[in-house]
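Support case: pyridoxal-5'-phosphate complex. Customer-provided input:
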Amino acid sequence: MTTIANHLPTSELQAIDAAHHMHPFTMGEELAQKGARVITGANGVWLKDSEGTDILDGMAGLWCVNIGYGRDELAEVAARQMRQLPYYNSFFQTTNVPALMLAKKLAELAPGDLNHVFFANGGSDANDTNIRMVRTYWAEKGEPDRQVIISRWNAYHGSTIGGTSLGGMKGMHSQGGLPIPGIEFIDQPHWYAEGGGMSPEEFGLERARQLEAKIEEIGPDKVAAFIGEPIQGAGGVIVPPSTYWPEIQRICKKYGILLIADEVICGFGRTGNWFGSETLGIQPDIMTVAKGLSSGYAPIGASIVSDEVANVLEKTEFNHGYTYSGHPVACAIALENLRIIEEEGIIDHVRNVAAPYLKQKWEALTDHPLVGEARIVGMMASIALTPDKASRAPFAADAGTVGYICRERCFANNVIMRHVGDRMIIAPPLTITCEEIDTLIERARKSLDECLEQIRSDGIYEAA
Ligand SMILES: *Cc1c(COP(=O)(O)O)cnc(C)c1O
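Agent response - structure generated as follows:
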């Protein structure tokens, strides 16, 4: 059998990595100099690196390891399925048992009449599916001019051509000549940074009504769909004001356009319900899911689609699909993951134990001199770093300078928090205990203290 060389010294592993491995969203040269941290194992909420250090994973990998690391059941299900049927496709009028059972399970869990599942390999390509699906839907309905999909600036919908185009990250659009035609953007409901003197509720309505204005500008007969994350994740865990989603839903209904909820982060317990749509009161026509669907134990994503959309699409051949759509091993792993979430009451644990406890500790961070606001829904949370709490001012230094320093302090203190600009974010495994939450908060505080000390001595503790 192939030996995976965990036994090499860290410096050798890092040298091989630097020579041959291109990392996503990374400055390659800088990483090559520093050397990547080599993760060699994990259990529960704890990662282990090649030096034997235990690191508290406050991000559940990339928001995906909802049930925590090290669950043998998933390894066993995977091995069993590989022996039984490692692969077959679902093209050409064939199916496999894990895929059809997972589709049934997702139809049961998803709200309303979302009863049909198209499988992908992750969230990005599920969103590519959605672009083609909604445009094909309207063409089949006899409205081929309905092509435009409206999204939000600073949304994240993945990194494929389609996912990047739907996302509203300008730094991503600028590489590769994106977005593709037919994607339009409105502003995000980010009250803290953009709300000025408005109340959050007024601001939520104002931002939602940009959708109506945009539809009128494009022409209502040209708009196919609106897409949004119930709570923006990669954009900085931005919790919309309570007025926002009801107004978005009203506008989608009024113009008869499809509503796509990108649940890739919010799904599978993250917000304290099965889906963020339930927490935020959204009834979508299509949901994108991935990440927590398998808790990251295998790559898989899906579009979960309403009866109406599926019924229309059924009348044509949808010329679309992936070699690994409905991969039997990934589907078997996802089924076992959902069984564990359900039978172990993990969402109840979030709602009744972990999220209330984390909320109290997280919101208390606002007593720290650097923290301007703390936001949390379920097990996703953010804090804004600021030099001036009263005015919510940004730093004079380039956005992300201070956030990066803070993240480096977290890294040194063996807790994984991510920075988005000058917001620090967490999304730990849903199985985290109260004791582990205490450790996470202790390390976060220590990192904030060290960050403050450093920016003072660097002379960048200064408002713009
Ligand atoms: C991560 C993410 C995606 C992309 O999923 P991949 O599995 O990385 O392709 C899409 N949408 C949202 C909201 C995400 O957070």
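The chain has a mean pLDDT of 97.

Case will auto-close in a few days if no follow-up is received.
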